[in-house]
Amino acid sequence: MPMKGGDTDGYREIDRWDRGVGWIAYPDEEMQRASHALVGDDGGVWVVDPVDAPDLDDLLAEFGDVVGVALGLDRHKRDAAAVATRHEVPVYLPRWMSGVERELDAPVKRYDGELGDSGIETFKVRDSSLPRWQEVGFVHPEDGTLLVPEAVGTASFFCAPGERLGIHPVLRPLPPRRALRGHDPERVLVGHGAGVTTDAAATLREALDDARRNMPGAYGQMLRELLS
Known about the structure:
Low-confidence stretches: none
Number of domains: 1
Mean pLDDT: 94
Radius of gyration: 17 Å
Number of strands: 13
Largest sheet: 7 strands, mixed
Oligomer: single chain
Order of helices and strands: EEEEHEHEEEEEEEHEHH
Number of helices: 5
CATH architecture: 4-Layer Sandwich
Strand content: 25-35%
Distance between the termini: 10 Å
């Protein structure tokens, strides 16, 4: 399987609930890049870290009109500009995220805290220069949704054997406990893989608590995949 991209005639839907949906545009890729559409309190659809796919607009239309495209990670430019341009909306970036705007061929709007009037709140997951990593998380308290674009994931290269949710391999020695510990979500959505929709809060706590303990299994799993 390719790490990223490949042949596809359609996306694979993941994480559907009343106020949102996710999809993986290239179901056979190993990176399992996941994208999401979240419905805000104002009824608008916010598309987060999108990878474009055939007939994607039909899926988004099921939930309403797209009012913005948001980036959750400085490396997740993906197809944000293309989707934003097609829907005639800006790409939203947190005010503190740098080095991204000039690489986006679309209007950019900066924000602090909440995404517009959506009720979707944002928080800083990580902002570091070594390694370069600027990540913002999204939480919709009324909806019970937590979206973490990169620090945690369910794709196989994130997880040690037996884990439902794993910490990114680079962050396992110092997991982002301070940023993520205070959340009690009904669902955890991620940027790589399908989300966790049952026992989500407990699963997130376990991932943070066991990150270092499970390092040997996680790194062994990743090495086996690289050599296979």
